[in-house]
Amino acid sequence: MKQAIFPQGLPFMKMHGLGNDFVVIDTRAGNGAVTPALARALGDRHRGVGFDQLAEIGHADDADFALTFWNSDGSQAGACGNATRCVSDYVMAQSGQTAVTLRTRRGLLHALRRGDGLVSVNMGHPQLDWAEVPLSGAMDVTHLPLPGVPMAVGMGNPHCVFFVANAEAEDVTARGSAIEHDPLFPQATNVEFVSLLGPDHLRMRVWERGAGITLACGSGACATAVAAHLRGLTGKTVRIEMDGGEIEIDWREDGVWMTGPTAHVFDGVLSPAYLAAHA
Predict the structure, then answer these.
(1) How does DSSP classify residue 183?
(2) Which one of the listed residues 86, 160, 217, 222 is annotated catalytic?
(3) Distance CA 46, CA 243 (A)
């Protein structure tokens, strides 16, 4: 898809959830669409804006809005929980609503603003069949044939969750980058390193597929909570400490809910010259 011409430039927002940072572009006005080339250019923290993911807001016939997620390498992500919370908060502020429905590749998701100002999103049911994660072949997702015996969980994107004695001591860059493209994961994977801090309290560090180390990962926190419960380490409601702060995960009958803060940092406009150079 060719990037449209923007004679007045293209507005964008910078947002973050627990330091997991996003560029948000609203294309509902018909002012073009994000392309892989533009996503890569914007993801460059020196020559662009920089982000962990780019969230593109679009129209949906069966929801309040649609979201498409892009990684900084120009690939698309199937889910991004913190960006979903941030953009949902923005749309609720625009419309005066306290709850919205949105469509992603994950399906229809529901988000709401709690009375304490935190924003919750139902990320849907975890995918616990090898073909849905997906993995390269039939196997037990709870005990993968890899050193450390991690667990695979799909949350609209694949996750490989390692339970370790001390997440702080893990070389996340070395291990995460190696596991990301392991043959077990035909679509690559996010990688989480998790240790138990106390009853229903976890520490998680993450390597995100297509992005590298990030301060937080919402879908990764959901996958971690599911894996911890299935391994018998926690109940279904947990607090997870990430590099960027704490998030609450509650695995209910209707799906995995995640709750945390959002931040709208600034607004900007991409220049026509910049857009033309990265069409």
Answers:
(1) T
(2) 217
(3) 23
Q: Can you list the positions of beta strands (E) in the chain?
A: 10-17, 20-26, 53-58, 65-71, 76-77, 99-104, 107-113, 119-122, 151-154, 158-163, 190-198, 201-208, 212-214, 237-242, 245-252, 255-260, 263-270
Q: What is the pLDDT of residues 76-120, one digit of tens each?
A: 988 899 999 999 999 999 999 999 999 998 899 999 999 899 999
What number does CATH give the domain 151-253? 3.10.310.10
Which entry of 80, 86, 160, 222 is annotated as an active-site residue?
80
Residue 16 β-bridge partners: 21, 263
Listed in sequence order, the DSSP H helices in the chain are 36-43, 81-95, 172-180, 218-230, 272-277
- Told to judge if 217 belongs to the known catalytic residues of this protein, a careful annotator would answer yes
Tokens of 175: 């291990």
Higher pLDDT, 10 or 78: 10
Q: 118 with 260: CB under 8 angstroms?
A: yes
Dihedral pair phi/psi, residue 35, rounded to 5°: -120, 165
Whether the domain at 10-123+262-277 and the domain at 151-253 fall into the same CATH topology: yes
Please give the share of the chain, as a percent, with pLDDT higher than 90: 88
Is pLDDT above 80 for 5? no
Taking only the tens place, the pLDDT of each residue in 156-212 is: 999 999 999 999 999 999 999 999 999 999 999 999 999 999 999 999 999 999 889
Task: Determine if the pTM surpasses 0.85.
Answer: yes
**CATH superfamily to which 10-123+262-277 belongs:** Diaminopimelate Epimerase; Chain A, domain 1 (3.10.310.10)
- From residue 129, how far is each of 107, 153, 203, 210, 220 by CA, in Å? 17, 8, 26, 23, 17
80 noted as active-site residue: yes
Write down the mean pLDDT value for the chain: 94
How do the domains of the chain map onto residue ranges?
10-123+262-277, 151-253
Sign of CA dihedral 261, 203, 133, 71: positive
